[in-house]
Design brief:
Number of helices: 7
CATH architecture of the largest domain: 3-Layer(bab) Sandwich
Order of helices and strands: HHHHEEEHHH
CATH superfamily of the largest domain: Iron/manganese superoxide dismutase, C-terminal domain
Helix content: 40-55%
CATH class of the largest domain: Alpha Beta
Radius of gyration: 18 Å
Strand order of the largest sheet: 2-1-3
Number of domains: 2
Largest sheet: 3 strands, antiparallel
Strand content: 5-15%
Number of strands: 3
């Protein structure tokens, strides 16, 4: 079963993210979908041919996590954006959980933005750890390194250069502000059920 790329053209026209930036980003995302399928097909062929003990098989197994997570993280990222984003409603369970776990919503936002502004490439995720019933902001250096096992990603921000350089050059902080203005907090509906 092949993975199909999702269409995010509805994001074109989002304030703070130019259409050129978004189209470039969509193309990069589609490459991850294509490569996820290519690696999966190659692994299946090697399995059928009895080549599972080869270095090539081992390297492709490692590569699959990179391509798959590159695909899926972009889907979360684009899924977190909407034209005309709004602030998180203070009456929601998500807002209250953020305030409880971080001391205030403002503390959480400051921490999330500071994590994104760190030097380097990667991702910033707001995760919910259902075992500890706790939220945390996490830096993911590469697609396949640093994820919190068993935690649910709630908010994903891409901080690889391709996510902002076309529009913001080296001004990553300005991109982060634009991202925050475009967040689709409608996810609060399904997230709120976690904290009931």
């Amino acid at each position: 079963m092949a993975y199909e790329p999702k269409n995010f053209d509805s994001l074109l026209g989002t304030k703070g993210l130019s259409d050129q930036l978004l189209k470039n980003h969509f193309t990069l995302y589609q490459g991850y979908v294509t490569n996820t399928n290519k690696v999966a097909d190659a692994l299946n062929a090697m399995l059928k041919e009895g080549k599972t003990g080869t270095p090539e098989y081992a390297e492709l197994k490692r590569r699959f996590g990179w391509e798959f997570n590159g695909m899926r993280l972009h889907e979360y990222y684009f899924g977190n954006i909407v034209k005309g984003g709004e602030h998180l409603d203070k009456s929601t369970n998500l807002y209250k959980k953020i305030a409880s776990d971080f001391g205030s919503y403002e503390n959480w936002e400051k921490d999330f933005k500071a994590t994104g502004a760190m030097r380097g490439i990667g991702w910033v995720l707001l995760y919910y750890d259902p075992w500890a019933e706790r939220l945390c902001n996490t830096w993911i250096n590469e697609h396949d390194v640093g994820h919190l096992c068993g935690a649910t990603p709630l908010l994903v921000m891409d901080v690889f250069e391709h996510a902002y350089m076309v529009d913001y050059g080296l001004k990553k902080a300005d991109y982060i502000e634009a991202f925050f203005k475009a967040i689709d907090w409608s996810m609060e509906d399904w997230v709120d059920k976690m904290f009931e």
